[in-house]
Amino acid sequence: MIIYFTGTGNSRYLAEIIAAELQDDCISAVSYIKEKQLGNFHAETPFLFVCPVYAWQIPHVFEAFIESSTFTGSKDCYFVLTCGDEMGNAGKSIAALCHRKELSCKGVMEIKMPENYIALFSAPSEEKAQEIITVGSQKAKEAARLIVQGKPFPPHHVGSVDKLKTSLVNPVFYKLVISDKKFYTTAQCTGCGACVKACMLRNIRLIDGKPVWNGNCTHCMACICGCPEEAIEYGKHTKGLRRYFLKKK
Ligand SMILES: Cc1cc2nc3c(=O)[nH]c(=O)nc-3n(C[C@H](O)[C@H](O)[C@H](O)COP(=O)(O)O)c2cc1C
Q: pLDDT tens digits for 106-125?
């Protein structure tokens, strides 16, 4: 059983490739999180969790979802982390999470996908993004082959800088950077409500036909990258930047 979390589609895309290879169920954690539901999952084959890297860790929201859900049947699991660059030492807290859930982690694989964090960085050109997706898709198929064979994922080298980023920078980053205060809409906004629907934390409401953010944001980029009018900005940084969203095939 594949359980994925996504803001802008990369993780869903790879989860669906692996699900097709394994002919296994592919479930979105986002719909559970949106409905504030816990999951009770049962599978006879290993669980696979697919999600983005947020500040060299799995997203705190997804970690909390796994923590509070139940997993019965198979005791084995794998993680595939999609990232714009690298996952740091995310494997350490995943190992601890699996231990608490009494799951045996058979590996964490990092797969590069196009950068979606336009609040701080920029997304690659369409052409470059396509190249990255092609390579990422091949790696996802390799992950599926290992899972079918019951083999562990290859070990991931972790250096001292990775350890620092994951253990020290991640909590500071969440405290100081992850906030919705800089989101606003431009005159292009039609009040269509796409951002309200896209927000997994139900943090956006329309007031007088315009979106208002209410202080509970995880910076998934679904609202800004999914806006059909490109009418959402984040401070000055996103002005003129390409939006990135990998839509369903
Ligand atoms: C809040 C946030 C933090 C991120 N932190 C990292 C990071 O530490 N390392 C990295 O390589 N990519 C980072 N990224 C990029 C995403 O992990 C990457 O683009 C991912 O594939 C997006 O997946 P999604 O489309 O399923 O949401 C970050 C993105 C966001 C939105």
A: 999 999 999 999 999 999 99
